[in-house]
């Protein structure tokens, strides 16, 4: 494994009985990268993540985490990673400081190193004034910040984040992004899942999309958006099947995907010029246009184009 690669997944497959959840998945994550792993519920991403963080046993394939083989060196892998779960897993009867102190004890940190790290992390997530407050008395945003601090307690090489801002208000989400950026800029590799496409777009260096147990697309946010074309058109008609067949013949159309009762149309040319052509062609064939919108590609459009569905909680 190259020194620049901190996570190497090769030909990984996983089955629950006769159900193949993950099919021959391969991807790498570079050291220091902010990587987002996206997919609909049931796509296989939870199985992949739970295997990477050692909650599930390895089945087929090979995985190397921070230079350690996931099958042979599970303890070393655990020592190299930090985890922030989707659900809050804090002890409500502990204080903020006790939470971090206890986590350090579990991992055998010596006292001086542990106390120094607690001080650093309380400052990082701005919980110094709440250090001796019970977890039960913290707001949801403060609890999430504490979980991030706990995940960083052992100075992990990779921090796994499962839906880190779910349920947070917009202001707290933005603040959480700031903490994650700082952590990443200090050299920690971040592996994140999220249902918020704007979050993946803003934070990620690289993104992988998984669906039906397979990696279906990989790239930077800008690459993924530009691959769709110059503009995106959403079109709802009286007969989407007939409209789709008709539109495919129009020059400049790079892709069409059904999406929640509409057609997601990728235009390689200026959408403002293509749109009147589409409407005129539909009208000539007696197809009624019920709604239409034109926009620049976003990560939401990328997700819907490649998976055929909107992201779901």
From TrEMBL:
Coiled-coil intervals: none
Among Pfam families, the record links this protein to: ABC_tran, DrrA1-3_C
User: Taking the first listed entry, what is the main subcellular location of this protein, grouped into a coarse class?
Assistant: membrane
The cross-references to PANTHER family, in alphabetical order and at most eight, read: ANTIBIOTIC RESISTANCE ABC TRANSPORTER ATP-BINDING PROTEIN, LINEARMYCIN RESISTANCE ATP-BINDING PROTEIN LNRL
Question: Which species does this protein come from?
Answer: Methanospirillum purgamenti
Q: In its keyword annotation, does this UniProt entry include rRNA-binding?
A: no
User: What is its membrane topology?
Assistant: Peripheral membrane protein
User: What GO CC annotations are associated with the protein?
Assistant: plasma membrane
Tell me where in this chain the ABC transporter domain is found. 7-237
Q: Which GO terms describe its biological process?
A: daunorubicin transport; doxorubicin transport
State the UniProt keywords alphabetically.
ATP-binding, Cell membrane, Membrane, Nucleotide-binding, Translocase, Transport
Protein's name in the database: ATP-binding cassette domain-containing protein
Subcellular location per UniProt equals:
Cell membrane
